[in-house]
Amino acid sequence: MGQPSSTGQSSGIGVVDKSVAILGTVAQAPRTLAELVDATGLPRATAHRLAVALEVHRLIARDAEGRFVVGPRVGELATSLPDPLVAAAGPILAWIRDECGESSQLFRRDGNERVCIAAAERATGLRTTVPVGSRLPLSAGSGAQVLCAWAEPSSLGHVLEGAEFTARSLADVRRRGWAQSIGQREAGVASVSAPVLDAGGVLLGALSLSGPIERLGRNPGQRFAPVLVTGARRLAAALG
């Protein structure tokens, strides 16, 4: 019998379910082998064997600290799908990166998580890498704030119970049109995000900029929000 994957479902094919469990786990956060074993419940030898196999196929990679992370093949597969939002986002993300000198991302909500569906990374120096396909919690970070601020309150369920922000702060985010985060999701990292809205005001995604606090500062919104808001408007216009 297969083991439940990261989706909680079992296909009956053990090696597939275990591999999906590993992919889902590293998509949430970088993992050491020990952390991978704890998160998946797999035997150490099995987790290592499957992770290395996935690494060969570039579905998993290693970061600078040797932890398992989502590999580049996941992003390549994702971007090969016909998604108008992703296709239109490429030039906008590159423009934001070049204007601000920091990595930029586009997030879309998926249940109680947000998924990075497109990104433009800073080429050199210290940077915050969020690979395409990464799944992050909806409870912290400027991108999460935007996705929650423009969501129907009834759709948030228990998200706000463990969140780093409140319903009141989300109202402030919606009023000013952007959000900022200083060490909220990850220590030492700051970010700014703005909503991408269609002509009817429906949220399509969150456009974000992230980088070290030492470069973005303690009030990054004041400096970078105008670029993010302009980029979000351009992206919406590109979609017609």
TrEMBL record:
Tell me which residues make up the IclR-ED domain: 73-240
* Domain HTH iclR-type, first and last residues per copy: 13-72
Q: Could you tell me what this protein is called?
A: IclR family transcriptional regulator
Organism of provenance: Jatrophihabitans cynanchi
Which parts pass through the membrane? none
Pfam families per the UniProt record, alphabetical: HTH_IclR, IclR_C
Provide the alphabetized UniProt keywords.
DNA-binding, Transcription, Transcription regulation
Matches recorded under InterPro entries:
GAF-like_dom_sf, HTH_MetabolicPath_Reg, Tscrpt_reg_IclR_C, Tscrpt_reg_IclR_N, WH-like_DNA-bd_sf, WH_DNA-bd_sf
